[in-house]
Each structure stands twice: as structure tokens, then as C-alpha cells.
């Protein structure tokens, strides 16, 4: 079968790949939710869902630096990677071992395309369609829920020392927009720029300062420090997985976002 990944690379598989290595935590969770637990042979140390995979699957390294010798040893049929999470240099090396399927996701629609692609690629079309239908239903429902919420200016922090925020052309920024949160850094830079927090007021003065649970473990002292450089922003610790994980996690994210809005209104 000939299939094209989200970078436009055409792959030709004589049969359904049976030995999968996943290099992206959210995609590992999706593969599991599609019923592919037995086919997944390798994951990264950051693949924390489902929790038992850490004991049952081979850990092949991190998302940016994998152990090529370990990957060769387990003999995968396919490696699942992502344009943002994994480096091009690493993917080029991995292609010497087996086909590497690369996803490229910024929007929910692109995430749904990934689910559909995996359904075809791994002969799980029915399961993929079920997840797509459930997500689309919840997506429509959430858009109705959020329609009457007032627009709030937000800054979404992912790192400290130096402070880094979410910019444009990211899945997190799309999730912010979906929630009626206007990212004050959206038009200042792409991806994840470093910022000077002393300039936060003149660069947008957010109503909300959102501190992600990943990849940096923000503490109360960070919240206090950031609070000093806004007028009256509400500082909120948020679940980073809900804002940044695409795939099946999106379904849980919509319920989480509803609860977040209810908290903000208290």
C-alpha cells in the first residue's frame, strides 16, 4: 500500500507494519487507544501514558536523542516521529534502519488527519473512525460552550531561567485561540520564544498568566515573580498535556477546558 505522511513523504508498505517504535508521547497514547499495544515495541522515556508501558516496552531514549543501537536491536518495521518533537538529523539517521512516518500538527484538523492516517497505516480504520467521531462531537460541543466566553489576553509559559512562552504556529496556540484566550505573544514570534518578563505589560499586559505543568515544573515563586510584572493578571497552573498533546488526548482536553473556564469565573 502507498500512503503519504504529513511531510509529503510517500511510503510503500507490502504489508501492515507490526513492530512500531513511537518517539512522541501523545502519539504513543493514540496508538495504544487505537488498540495497538501488542505492536508497540519501543517508546521514549517521556512516553508516560499508558503508565505500564515503562515496564513493558523498550525505552529507546528521549525525543531529541535516541539510542540507535537499541532501536536496531529491536528491529522495528516503522518508527513514528513528529516534525516538532524530533530533529531532522535524527530522522535521517533512523531512515537507515526502517521507514520513518513523520507527522506535522498545528491544528485539531491536522490531528484528526493523523488519526485517520494511523487507521489506514495499521489497519485500524474502525477504531480510528470512532475516535474521530468522538473528538468531532466534543469539539462542536466545546465551541458552543465557549462561544459566550469573553476574550481574555493570555501568556502561556513553558519554561523558566530563561522564561519562555508559546508563540505562533504551535498546537498550544491553537488551543489558546479555541478557548478565547488571545496569546499576547502570538504575533511577536513563532514557536517558543524567550521573553523578558519585565516587558510583559508593554508587550500585551495579559489577563491570564498560564504556567504549564510540562516541560518545566513551575512553582509558587515563579507565579509570584511573574505576577509582579503584570497589572492584575490571574496566574493559573494548567495541565500542559491538555494544551499540547494531540491525538486521543484531545477528547479529555475539552472537558478539562470547561472546568478551567469554570475555575476562572469563580
Task: Describe this structure as you would to a colleague.
There is one protein chain. This protein is of the alpha/beta class and 266 residues long. The protein folds into 2 domains: 2-139, Nitrogenase molybdenum iron protein domain (Rossmann fold, 3-Layer(aba) Sandwich), CATH 3.40.50.1980; 149-264, Nitrogenase molybdenum iron protein domain (Rossmann fold). The chain has 10 helices and 12 strands.
Q: What's the short story on this structure?
A:
This protein is of the alpha/beta class and 266 residues long.
The coarse silhouette is globular
Distance between the termini: 54 Å
Low-confidence stretches: none
Text of the CATH class of the largest domain: Alpha Beta
Q: Gyration radius, to the nearest Å?
A: 19 Å
Count of helix runs: 10
**Portion in beta strands:** 15-25%
Strand order of the largest sheet: 5-4-3-6-7
CATH superfamily of the largest domain: Nitrogenase molybdenum iron protein domain
Number of domains: 2
Describe the secondary-structure layout.
Blueprint: E1 2-4, E2 10-12, E3 20-22, H1 25-33, E4 40-43, H2 53-56, E5 58-59, H3 68-74, E6 78-82, H4 88-94, E7 100-103, H5 108-121, H6 125-146, E8 152-159, E9 164-165, H7 171-178, E10 181-183, E11 208-212, H8 220-227, E12 234-238, H9 240-244, H10 249-264
Parallel strand pairs: 3-4, 3-6, 4-5, 6-7, 8-10, 8-11, 11-12
Antiparallel strand pairs: 1-2, 8-9
Helix pairs in contact: 5-6, 6-10
Amino acid at each position: 500500500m502507498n500512503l503519504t505522511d504529513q511531510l509529503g513523504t510517500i511510503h510503500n508498505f507490502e504489508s501492515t507494519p507490526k513492530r512500531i517504535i513511537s518517539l512522541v508521547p501523545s502519539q504513543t497514547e493514540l496508538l495504544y487507544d487505537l488498540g495497538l499495544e501488542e505492536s508497540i515495541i519501543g517508546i521514549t522515556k517521556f512516553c508516560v501514558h499508558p503508565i505500564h508501558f515503562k515496564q513493558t516496552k523498550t525505552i529507546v531514549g528521549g525525543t531529541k536523542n535516541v539510542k540507535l543501537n537499541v532501536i536496531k536491536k529491536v528491529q522495528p518495521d516503522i518508527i513514528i516521529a513528529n516534525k516538532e518533537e524530533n530533529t531532522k538529523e535524527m530522522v535521517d539517521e533512523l531512515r537507515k534502519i526502517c521507514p520513518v512516518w513523520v507527522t506535522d500538527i498545528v491544528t485539531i484538523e491536522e490531528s484528526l488527519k493523523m488519526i485517520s492516517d494511523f487507521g489506514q497505516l495499521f489497519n485500524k480504520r474502525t477504531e480510528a473512525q470512532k475516535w474521530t467521531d468522538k473528538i468531532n462531537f466534543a469539539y462542536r460541543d466545546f465551541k458552543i460552550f465557549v462561544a459566550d466566553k469573553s476574550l481574555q489576553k493570555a501568556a502561556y509559559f513553558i519554561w523558566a531561567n530563561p522564561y519562555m512562552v508559546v508563540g505562533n504556529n504551535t498546537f498550544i496556540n491553537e488551543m489558546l485561540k479555541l478557548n478565547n484566550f488571545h496569546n499576547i505573544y502570538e504575533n511577536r514570534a513563532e514557536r517558543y520564544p524567550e521573553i523578558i518578563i519585565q516587558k510583559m505589560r508593554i508587550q500585551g499586559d495579559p489577563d491570564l498568566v498560564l504556567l504549564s505543568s510540562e516541560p518545566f515544573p513551575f512553582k509558587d515563586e515563579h507565579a509570584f515573580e511573574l505576577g509582579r510584572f503584570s497589572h492584575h493578571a490571574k496566574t493559573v497552573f494548567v495541565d500542559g498535556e491538555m494544551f499540547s498533546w494531540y491525538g486521543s488526548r484531545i477528547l479529555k482536553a475539552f472537558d478539562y477546558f470547561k472546568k478551567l473556564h469554570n475555575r476562572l469565573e469563580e
